[in-house]
From TrEMBL:
MF annotations from Gene Ontology: antiporter activity; xenobiotic transmembrane transporter activity
Its biological purpose: Multidrug efflux pump.
Family of this protein: Belongs to the multi antimicrobial extrusion (MATE) (TC 2.A.66.1) family.
InterPro entries from the UniProt entry: MATE_fam (IPR002528), MATE_MdtK (IPR050222), MdtK-like (IPR048279)
GO biological process annotation, one example: monoatomic ion transport
Name of the protein described by the UniProt record: Probable multidrug resistance protein NorM
Keywords linked to the UniProt accession: Antiport, Cell membrane, Ion transport, Membrane, Transmembrane, Transmembrane helix, Transport
Highest taxon, organism lineage: Bacteria
Transmembrane segments annotated in the record for this chain: 23-45, 65-90, 110-135, 141-162, 183-202, 208-229, 250-275, 295-317, 329-356, 362-385, 397-418, 430-449
GO CC aspect terms: plasma membrane
One matching Pfam family: MatE
Membrane topology type: Multi-pass membrane protein
Length: 460
């Protein structure tokens, strides 16, 4: 076992969590908590944002924002994937103490994000009306939706740079700074919403402009944080360069992760299509469940990012035993956290669901959904940790293929082939644990077959 070079130099950085040394469980939890905080901040201010639009501008404006949600989600998913690719490479080099490589990956990623985002903006603005029409956006809100999307797209470079920069910071163990950036951006978003929508009365333009302002602020704050990193790999504008080999490495990990997020989003459209054909109470019940589920989903996603960074850092440090232990620890934490949260949800389902609806029928249907999916959520935690660990080892394509085929493909095929079987809300809910079981089985099989390649054979 070899200690990571440069470890001593990194210990003094107060916001950096070195996952190659110290108690592993504590380090993973400390690293994951700010990731969870960032997700909560994002959820909170997006909810407040929608409340401003719905209450101040009316139902049609809220629908226009919602209609553009799929385009926004797909774009964010792709760029988050590229941030993942950047983070995995940076974490690997950081764990090995290869500071010049950290510098190269960071500057290549940011240069690519700046160039790619700038080129993508005019193209996306041009085809926005066509995309919204394909999504069957009603004519009465199409114009507002186009305006919202086009203004949102002006901040595309900011979205890319934030995700790339946040990926770098998390890879070197600083998950707190991206959270603080998002927190400040969220506060500004709410304040600017009030200013643009309530005071200036800019309507849907004000809502989009508020989002653009907060995104730009988040990107600027992250870039400033990168300027304060260790002098051996801190951000310097003169270092921006598209290094071809490094860019290929980033895309080899980032593109599969981005495509995976994109396909998962699109597969959810198929599920929503089936739900929409069941009836108003069923639609409302799944809407409530998806809101409640966020509080199960977000800790799992934070833990997945922690698993990916921990695996990448420890593989960079050539500590194979600690790498395998990190995967086991993340799995145990994931099972424990989701089990506790699921039990709490089921025990207090009445008061929790009552926060979102007063309809007894909707509460009863949502409770049925929770009883099916909630106890099985530990399977989702295992799936996220295993796929993130494989990705952290630099193998992003296999988990993408497995998840796209088993998780997304299975749901779409079953819904299309057996519409009568999935003709009730509880049966649609069963698709989730069923697809998680199949996906986990395939991921575990891949891990067993390829464990020597991923992180070395156990030394028993």
């Amino acid at each position: 076992m070899t200690a990571a070079p440069g470890t001593a130099a990194r210990r003094g950085r107060s916001r950096t969590t070195d996952l190659t040394t110290g108690p592993l469980g504590r380090g993973i939890i400390v690293f994951a908590l700010p990731l969870l905080g960032a997700a909560l901040v994002q959820l909170l201010y997006s909810t407040v944002d929608l409340m401003f639009v719905g209450h101040a501008l009316g139902t049609e404006a809220a629908a226009a924002v919602g209609a553009s949600g799929l385009i926004v989600t797909c774009l964010i998913g792709m760029f988050t994937g590229l941030g993942t690719g950047t983070g995995v490479l940076v974490a690997r080099h950081f764990g090995a103490g290869r500071h010049s490589q950290v510098d190269r990956v960071m500057h290549t990623a940011l240069a690519f994000g700046l160039a790619g985002g700038t080129l993508l903006i005019p193209a996306m603005i041009l085809i926005a009306p066509t995309l919204l029409a394909w999504l069957n956006t009603p004519d009465e809100i199409l114009a507002m939706a186009v305006v919202y999307v086009r203004i949102y797209l002006l901040g595309l470079v900011s979205v890319v740079l934030f995700n790339m920069g946040a990926g770098v910071l998390r890879a070197v163990g600083d998950s707190l700074t991206p959270m603080l950036c998002q927190l400040l951006g969220g506060v500004v978003n709410v304040l600017v919403d009030a200013l643009f929508i309530v005071v200036f009365r800019w309507g849907i333009v004000g809502a989009a402009a508020a989002t653009l302002t907060s995104q730009t602020l988040c990107a600027v704050l992250v870039l400033l944080a990168l300027r304060r990193l260790d002098e051996r790999y801190r951000l310097r504008l003169t270092r921006f360069h598209l290094h071809r080999v490094t860019l290929r490495e980033i895309l080899a990990i980032g593109l599969p992760a981005g495509v995976q997020a994109l396909v998962i989003t699109l597969s959810n459209v198929a599920v929503q299509y089936r739900i929409n054909g069941l009836g108003i109470p069923d639609i409302a019940a799944f809407t409530v469940w998806f809101r409640v589920e966020n509080f199960l989903y977000m800790p799992v996603m934070a833990l997945g990012q922690a698993a990916s960074t921990s695996v990448a850092q420890n593989l960079g440090a050539e500590d194979r035993a600690r790498t395998r232990r990190a995967v086991r620890v993340c799995c145990l934490i994931g099972v424990a956290v989701t089990s506790v949260l699921a039990v709490a949800l089921l025990v207090a389902s009445g008061p929790i669901l009552g926060m979102f609806t007063a309809d007894p029928q909707v509460i009863a249907l949502t409770t049925s959904i929770a009883r099916i999916i909630g106890p099985c959520y530990l399977l989702f935690a295992l799936m996220e940790v295993l796929s993130s660990s494989i990705r952290g080892a630099g193998h992003a394509l296999p988990p993408m293929i497995i998840i796209v085929s088993a998780l997304c493909g299975l749901r779409v095929v079953l819904l299309a082939a057996l519409p009568q079987v999935f003709g009730a809300v509880t049966r649609v809910a069963m698709l989730y644990p069923l697809s998680w079981v199949v996906t986990n089985a395939l991921l575990l099989a891949y891990l067993l077959i390829r464990r020597a390649v991923l992180w070395g054979e156990p030394r028993d």
